[in-house]
Amino acid sequence: MRITRAAAVATAAIVASALTAAPAAAHGKTKPLGTKSLAAVLTADKSGFDRNGHDYDILAAAVQAVLKAKPGSPVKVLADGKTAVTAFLPNDLAFRRLVADIQHSKRLPGEKAAFTAVAGLGINTVESVLLYHVVPGATITRKAALKSDGAKLKTAAGATIKVDVYGRWHKRIALIDADRSDRNPRINRFDINKGNKQIAHGIDRVLRPIDLP
User: Fold this and answer.
1) 130 membership: H or E segment, kind and range
2) Per-residue pLDDT tens digits for 10-48
3) Gene3D superfamilies recorded for this chain (predicted)?
């Protein structure tokens, strides 16, 4: 996919803003970003599959399943807190909606059933979908993202997603993926793990690297 000059400039602006967004420490010096990994954040919740659709149990299980089957997978970057990445985290309700769409069902499955269905797509497919949610090389905060309408972000899967900042008075952010037949994911939680090189934003749908029927 060709990236326009304007989009490239916007992407550069994201990176530049993100790299200068660390909070200032005493004596006027810039405080270095921490190295707590996103994997540590995801695995800190020990509740397992539950009825809370707004946490990330299915995502955490998917990451662990990929790394168990493929220890050398690029997904392991999420466990390396020294490497800057920005990830978009679909919550459990997002995965349940995805499975309902795939199965052409109007009824949302439970979290365990949703994970089983996602895992049933095959570990390589799960890996590809996870990598489509990771933007390597930049720590993109909410403040930087809000200034980057139209930017195209290259993901660890190799494909791009587009930033759509919308709303006249209260600015919101959606992410335009490869699926043109479904509503685009919207960011519903910002700056998870803020202050570290690895940052994430929660989204209400799973980013789709292909156009699902």
Assistant:
1) helix 123-131
2) 444 444 444 334 443 334 567 899 999 999 999 999 889
3) FAS1 domain
